[in-house]
Structure formats: C-alpha cells, structure tokens
Design brief:
The protein is an alpha/beta fold. The protein is built from eight helices and twelve strands. The chain has a five-stranded parallel β-sheet, with helices on both faces. A four-stranded antiparallel β-sheet has the order 6-7-8-9, with helices on one face. Keywords: DNA-binding, Phosphoprotein, Transcription, Transcription regulation, Two-component regulatory system.
C-alpha cells in the first residue's frame, strides 16, 4: 500500500487530494505548511511519495523539495503549480522534483501521474539484492544499472529516480542521438503531458552533478536531442 504525504495549505484542495488517494487504496499523511511537511517526512518511515504545493506559508515548496533531496533521493515528489507559472515547473524540476501537475487537475490525472512515478520509486526502494548484474565503466564514471547507482572517483553521485532513468537511457545508447520525444515517452510515459523543458531541466541538473564541464558526458545535438559521449 502506497504511503502519500500531501503538503498543501488550502484545506479544500488538501482534502480533495487526500480523498482521491484514499479511494485508490493509499495511506495518506497531511501537512498544512512546509515546516510541518518536513517534520512529518523526517519522523515518518516509509513515505513513498510527496504531493507538494509550490506556494506554502513558512517555507515554500521549492525549499521543502531541496531539503528533502539533501537527505533522500528515492522518495517521489510531484509538485503542484499554478497554470500560468511556467517558471514554477522549471524550478520544481531544478530543485529535485520528479514531476509536476498544473492546477486545476482531475483526480484521474493526479492518480495516473502518481502511479507512473510510483513504479519508478518502488524499484529503488524495494531492492532486495545487492548483487551487481550490469556495470558500465566509462572513464571516471561507474554506472551500476541494476543498483541504480552512479559512482565518480569512488564517490556516489546522488541522482533522483528520474535523473538516473535519463542517464541509464543515454549510457545504454552511447553514441546514438536520443530525441526529447523518445525520452518523454520512455521515461515519463506516453500519456505524459509536458514539454521538452522537462527533459532539458533534468539534463541540466545531471550535468551539474557529474561535472562542471556542461558537455563532458552528455552532448547536445542541436534541434534533435542528446547523446552520451562519455570519455
């Protein structure tokens, strides 16, 4: 059973989201502001996913997302943004969110997005074997595909679920150009409603984590997509 933390200051929206997940058989926890949301996350074990509003009293959703990512990279985060705030979507992904959904939204859309993300989250959270079945060594990087781990100079690089999916797709197709459309379809799903900026922001974050040289590992193929060139 999925455990969902809902961080939303508007009571009506919070209760609407909670009811939607409860009908789907999920366990829910609720917070009315960012500070309470962080406290619940730190004290409650087994949270699979967080539905996180951008505009919150106390500390905003971006700060909450950033603080969560400092201590955990596996919990799924879906941010709620206003329809007109395109910048919110980009910022949410930059701070470590896996996905975003625009208000107003339907229960079906919310649950579909959450289920899609949960499939990725569960793979990372429920690893029972530490055996390395597939390992790619590329210069100073070691990528453990089944463990979903990236190591650089003997140090783990903290990637979110989505970021690792992007790296995995690229590295397994080294030298080939992967279009944004293909990435959206393979990683976010064919039913995903989003723009190419979702891909671009994740690529930007991966590059910053791997190396200061923006195209050392991932090359931009102008007008087409991205290519893993490695070393």
């Amino acid at each position: 059973m999925k455990k969902i933390l809902i961080v939303e200051d508007e009571k009506a929206i919070r209760e609407f989201i909670e009811k939607s997940f409860q009908i789907s058989g999920c366990t829910t926890l609720c917070a009315k502001d960012g500070i309470e949301g962080l406290e619940i996350f730190k004290s409650e074990n087994g949270i699979d996913m967080i539905i996180l509003d951008v505009m919150l009293p106390g500390i905003d959703g971006f700060t909450v997302c950033q603080k969560i990512r400092e201590i955990d990279d596996t919990t799924g985060i879906i941010m709620l943004t206003a329809k007109s705030q395109e910048e919110d979507k980009i910022n949410g992904l930059t701070f470590g969110a896996d996905d975003y959904i625009v208000k107003p939204f339907s229960p079906k859309e919310l649950i579909a997005r959450a289920n899609s993300l949960y499939r990725k989250v569960s793979i990372m959270k429920n690893k029972t074997s530490k055996q390395i079945e597939r390992e790619i060594n590329d210069g100073d990087l070691k990528i453990l595909l089944d463990e979903k781990i990236v190591i650089k100079d003997s140090k783990d690089i903290k990637l979110t679920n989505t970021e690792f999916e992007v790296v995995s797709l690229l590295v397994q197709n080294k030298g080939k150009t992967i279009t944004r459309d293909y990435m959206l379809d393979k990683i976010w799903g064919s039913s995903y409603i989003g723009s190419y900026k979702t891909v671009d922001v994740n690529i930007l974050r991966i590059r910053k984590k791997l190396d200061l040289d923006s195209e050392k590992y991932i090359k931009t193929i102008r007008g087409r997509g991205y290519q893993w060139k490695g070393l």
